Amino acid sequence: MLGLPDHITACLFDLDGVLTRTAKVHAAAWKQMFDDYLRRRAAGEGAVFVPFDPVHDYDEYVDGRPREDGVRTFLASRGITLPEGTAEDGPDRETVHGLGTRKNGLVLRMIREQGVEAYEGSVAFVRAVRDAGLHRAVVSASANCRDVLVAAGIEDLFEQRVDGITVTEQGLRGKPAPDSYLAAAKLFGVEPRNAAVFEDALAGVAAGRAGAFGFVVGVDRTGQAAELADHGADVVVTDLSELLDRG
């Protein structure tokens, strides 16, 4: 019925791009923040401005990662190193935390203005998982995870949440490390081999594979099915409702 192996007893879902249509919002916020920074930097150095690519750069360097990791990883791809700063840095500070704060302010504004929509196929799948008696958790790098779930009207479908706040409080490594997914499985007392991971991000699929989870589902929203498979997805779908059809 669910299109999952019989030994799976818990389902661990990424948020943006898997459950909610917020991946494009995040990509737009990253682009606006990085382009503003890169444009000023290029002008100051007399260099050519090369904008942030909301598809390649987003998928490769920031999608699925904790906010500060995304800043570091993308800037490193451009040969740029900034001071770390602190979590208290405002959006005007040119530090890793400052740029992260600036991006977060942009995405929160976009969510307020545009709202949050859940994927109907994902909601149907999660309800089927619930009705089948399997555990359900959201595992997201976003510190705004709960706000997004509430705005989308789906918070009640999940028993547990491991998000950006949890990652910071518990000192977990961000995706592609498997720490956040392992923490979610532990909340249910479930071994990784008995849990399924659902991810649209390359880093998230890699995290599921690194954690030796029993089933890793890649959700292809942007035409990167081959890359998701290469990073460790056992199966790739364009919508979770396809799993119900297979079941």
Summarize the structure.
With 247 residues, the chain is α/β, with parallel strands linked by helices. It is built from 11 helices and 6 strands.
What's the count of strands?
6
Ranges with pLDDT <50 over ≥5 residues?
A: none
What proportion of the residues form beta strands (DSSP E)?
5-15%
The geometry reads as: elongated
CATH class of the largest domain: Alpha Beta
Structural class: alpha/beta
CATH superfamily of the largest domain: HAD superfamily/HAD-like
Radius of gyration computed on alpha carbons? 18 Å
* CATH architecture name of the largest domain: 3-Layer(aba) Sandwich
Largest sheet, in brief, is: 6 strands, parallel
Describe what you observe in this structure.
It is a single chain. With about 250 residues, this protein is α/β, with parallel strands linked by helices. The chain has two domains: about 10-20 and about 115-245, Rossmann fold, CATH 3.40.50.1000; about 25-115, no CATH class. It has helices at about 25-45, 55-60, 65-75, 95-115, 120-130, 145-150, 165-170, 180-185, 200-210, 225-230, 240-245, and strands at about 10-15, 135-140, 160, 195-200, 215-220, 235. Strands 3-2-1-4-5-6 form a six-stranded parallel beta sheet.
